[in-house]
């Protein structure tokens, strides 16, 4: 008996030429306009995700076809999805947390750096076994395209980058187990979760704690994409390489193996409190190598180039307000 052929690898995105943005299916350097190929309204990637289980066979059929393709070159690439909800994970890369803890240990500490690293590493291992991820809410209005300029607001002096793997939900998830959580993930994309470091902690009343609204949700502070790659074409979300370059110099270079809580545990954790909906984003945290680590924050004219294995590349330029 012949072995069934594997489906042609494809991705989803949102594009425009001269008119309104349209959802597109990407194979190589070609794009099929899904607003024409699928009789669904409204014509958005969110509409596709709302019908994800039924849409997949249709998408595979279109990917194998030879008609109705346009060249990717010349199209504007928008954020692949405009989600209903955005969930963001903090302190989720082991080496990043260790670096931060060691860098901020008291100046009069009697620990050597090696001892401090060993101590914090033990704490992270215990956290992975016994604790829950740290997750907070972001705003969809912060999302921008993978090639759009990022405006640095005048009210922050420490804008920073944070390259992250983003899981995109394809099926409602409420109180799912880690073992079942990945069945609710449609695919993955790239996010750069910018942060105004000087505004993370409230200076007027430290007891309040963090201010994620102002620190992370300025317009354009979440470049997303270029594409949504279906989960079937991502061999292992727990073994992807993340690389962010600033003006050509590598600043972040890490594997998702370094996550404290993997994608399944993050999705499961969020679903214990709320219902994840199709198109929702679960950002999975950023590895070591942020601007605060290098003592170099974002400035007017900086160019960030971010890649994750198999998910493409986003390239954004910073512009002072």
TrEMBL record:
- Which residues does the UniProt record annotate as the domain Fumarylacetoacetase-like C-terminal? 86-317
Instruction: Report whether Metal-binding shows up as a keyword of the record.
Output: yes
Keywords noted in UniProt:
Metal-binding
Q: Would you say which domain of life the source belongs to?
A: Bacteria
Name any one Pfam family assigned in the record. FAA_hydrolase
What InterPro entries does this protein map onto? FAH, Fumarylacetoacetase-like_C, Fumarylacetoacetase_C_sf
Tell me where the transmembrane regions lie.
none
Q: Which family does it belong to?
A: Belongs to the FAH family.
- The name of this protein is 2-keto-4-pentenoate hydratase/2-oxohepta-3-ene-1,7-dioic acid hydratase in catechol pathway
């Amino acid at each position: 008996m012949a072995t069934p052929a594997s489906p042609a690898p494809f991705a989803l995105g949102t594009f425009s030429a001269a008119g309104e943005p349209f959802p597109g299916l990407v194979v190589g350097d070609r794009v099929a306009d899904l607003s024409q190929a699928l009789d669904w309204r409204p014509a958005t990637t969110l509409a596709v995700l709302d019908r994800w289980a039924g849409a997949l066979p249709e998408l595979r059929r279109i990917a194998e076809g030879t008609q109705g393709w346009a060249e990717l070159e010349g199209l504007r690439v928008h954020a692949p999805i405009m989600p209903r909800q955005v969930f963001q994970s903090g302190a989720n890369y082991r080496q990043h947390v260790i670096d931060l803890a060691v860098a901020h240990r008291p100046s009069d500490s009697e620990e050597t750096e090696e001892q401090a690293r060993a101590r914090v590493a033990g704490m992270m291992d215990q956290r992975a076994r016994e604790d829950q991820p740290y997750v907070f809410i972001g705003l969809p209005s912060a999302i921008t395209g993978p090639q759009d300029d990022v405006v640095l607001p005048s009210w922050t002096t420490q804008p920073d980058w944070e390259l992250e793997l983003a899981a995109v939900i394809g099926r409602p998830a409420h109180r799912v187990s880690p073992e079942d959580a990945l069945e609710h993930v449609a695919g993955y994309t790239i996010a750069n979760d910018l942060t105004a470091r000087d505004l993370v902690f409230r200076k007027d009343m430290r007891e309040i704690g963090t201010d994620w609204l102002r620190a992370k949700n300025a317009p354009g502070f979440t470049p997303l994409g270029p594409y949504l790659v279906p989960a079937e074409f991502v061999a292992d979300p727990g073994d992807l390489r993340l690389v962010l370059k600033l003006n050509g110099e590598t600043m972040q270079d890490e594997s998702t193996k370094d996550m404290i809580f993997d994608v399944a545990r993050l999705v499961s954790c969020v679903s214990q409190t709320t219902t994840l909906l199709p198109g929702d984003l679960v950002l999975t945290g950023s590895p070591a190598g942020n601007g605060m680590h290098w003592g170099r924050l974002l400035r007017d004219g900086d160019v960030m180039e971010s890649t994750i294995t198999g998910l493409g590349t986003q390239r954004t330029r910073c512009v002072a307000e």
